[in-house]
Design goal:
Oligomer: single chain
Number of helices: 11
Strand order of the largest sheet: 2-3-5-4-7-8
Number of strands: 8
Largest sheet: 6 strands, mixed
Helix content: 40-55%
Radius of gyration: 17 Å
Structural class: alpha+beta
Shape: globular
Length: 259
């Protein structure tokens, strides 16, 4: 196992917690200004939350979108996806059992990768924020081990595809065996991981410590639910509900950093 790990909403539409390298830091004034244009008010967030589970998109369709995204990913480095020279770093905090995370991964993330990551404008960095129980922690450990082999995004998308096919978006079920040892090994195989290295890493106490540290780091930043985001190190208290909103937010941030 590698001696050092590689880099790593309470609005409606996120799973709440129960009782990186940073580029030029964006000011809170900038974030607030951009957010005023693109983020949702409380009512809008509620609409988004409802649309997440209203069955408007079949589980198979979501899984297909995730699988298509996984088939052709940009360069990876640990938990990061995209160029280290990107002007913007978008940190993503997720739990693999979170239905809202499945929805974001299927409907928004592919567009961000196509339009911003591939062009070198944005670097995505995944962070585990395991809040939904033992299987969330188990999946997060698998993600850490996949990052050690620079395949964290392949592994994570394999898990989200599994969740989409099981209709986690339509009917949320937690800790029901979807991320048991066998399922994680299958996801690792699907992601192209070395099975021996993966299992050795899973059994390493340092892996559990890394998952705990990721949670602590997210909590310190202000993360209280999933999915949550930070842009160039600044936590986004409110986020867009769709790809169009994300594009507007990122375009405004890019225009500012280019000045």
């Amino acid at each position: 196992m590698a001696s050092q790990r590689k880099s790593q909403r309470q609005p409606a539409g996120r799973r709440k917690v129960q009782p990186v390298r940073q580029k030029q830091t964006l000011s809170w004034r900038l974030i607030a200004g951009a957010a005023a244009v693109v983020v949702l008010a409380v009512a809008g967030l509620i609409v988004f939350a409802l649309s997440t589970s209203n069955g408007s998109e079949s589980s198979n369709a979501l899984a297909t979108q995730i699988d298509q995204s996984a088939a052709d990913l940009p360069e990876q480095d640990g938990f990061a996806l995209g160029s280290a020279e990107a002007a913007l770093v978008l940190d993503v905090y997720e739990d693999f059992q979170c239905p809202f995370c499945v929805k974001f991964t299927a409907t928004v993330e592919p567009g961000l990768i196509t339009d911003y990551v591939r062009s070198g404008k944005v670097r995505l960095v995944f962070h585990n924020f395991a809040i939904l129980g033992a299987e969330s922690v188990a999946a997060a450990k698998g993600s850490v081990c996949a990052a050690d082999q620079d395949r964290a995004w392949n592994f994570g998308l394999a898990l989200y595809s599994l969740q989409a096919n099981a209709d986690q978006v339509g009917v949320e079920k937690l800790n029901v065996g979807r991320f048991n040892d066998g399922a994680l090994r299958k996801a690792a195989d699907r992601a192209g991981l070395d099975a021996g290295k993966f299992q050795s890493c899973i059994n390493d106490a340092a892996t559990t410590a890394t998952v705990s540290q990721q949670y602590a780091d997210g909590s310190t930043l202000g993360v209280r639910g999933t999915p949550s985001f930070a842009l160039n190190g600044t936590y986004l208290a409110n986020v867009p509900s769709d790809l169009a909103g994300w594009k507007l937010l990122l375009d405004q941030a890019l225009a500012t950093t280019a000045k």
